[in-house]
Design brief:
20% helix; Umud Fragment, subunit A; 7-stranded antiparallel sheet; 11 strands; globular; 4-stranded antiparallel sheet; 5 helices; alpha+beta
Length: 225
């Protein structure tokens, strides 16, 4: 007896909605970037020589901001609001905390009367002892630090405008702790500046032609200590 073969209609498979998928991925990625940018890490550009050579002018530094409300440890490098101009920021090293007494005698740092060994990045490039206003650079204090505040010094001790000149730093003015250098662009006094839209092509061609000289290959990836 012949059998009847039942013909089945294959189920129609729905095509995945790639547009919706990638839209969701893009939105999630954007939210993550905003959160990371706002609350976790932020990029800063070094614009002074106060911390040279630990941080040099033209270094792009990634700063973590999660622990900015946590008291820094002595020796930490921090990014902070510049007390003399709060709209600007600077980098410096914490050398003393509230309750301590700071004194500098002939360029040598003393905390509570004890000499402090220079941190690895510290350097003195001017052998002279300055007078008058610059005497604060080489001979300072004794100065007692208010509780909840810190004494900040630049590693480039002879050419750093720091707590010797503008006073102690409040905890609330600390922006975060630098992690590493993610880009470096060596300053060039001969590089053209953009003063109008007509200068843009000239600046672009100059920097492309001098890229190998201006890009700080040896500094990228350097951990800040």
């Amino acid at each position: 007896m012949p059998t009847v073969t039942e013909k089945r209609t294959p189920l129609k498979q729905e095509k995945p909605n790639y547009v919706a998928y990638w839209f969701i991925v893009a939105v999630v990625a954007l939210v993550l970037v905003i959160c990371i940018r706002s609350w976790i890490v932020k990029g800063y550009v070094v614009n002074t020589d106060c911390m040279s050579e630990t941080l040099q002018k033209g270094d792009f530094v990634l700063v973590e901001e999660i622990s900015k409300n946590k008291p820094p440890e002595i020796g930490d490098v921090v990014a902070f609001r510049y007390p003399a101009e709060p709209s600007q920021y600077r980098f410096g090293r914490v050398v003393a905390a509230g309750g301590s007494t700071v004194q500098i005698i002939q360029k040598k740092l003393y905390i509570d009367g004890d000499p402090v060994k220079d941190y690895p990045g510290v350097r003195h490039t001017d052998p002279l002892m300055r007078d008058e206003l610059y005497s604060l650079r080489d001979n300072f204090g004794p100065y007692w630090i208010t509780n909840g505040c810190y004494f900040i010094m630049g590693d480039n001790r002879d050419y750093s405008v720091d707590s010797r000149f503008w006073g102690e730093l409040r905890q609330s003015d600390i922006l975060g702790r630098p992690l590493f250098i993610y880009f470096a662009w060596v300053p060039d006094p001969h590089a053209p500046e953009v003063n109008s839209i007509l200068d843009v092509p000239k600046v672009v061609f100059y920097n492309v032609g001098h890229f190998l000289n201006r890009f700080g290959f040896s500094r990228v990836g350097k951990v800040v200590r």
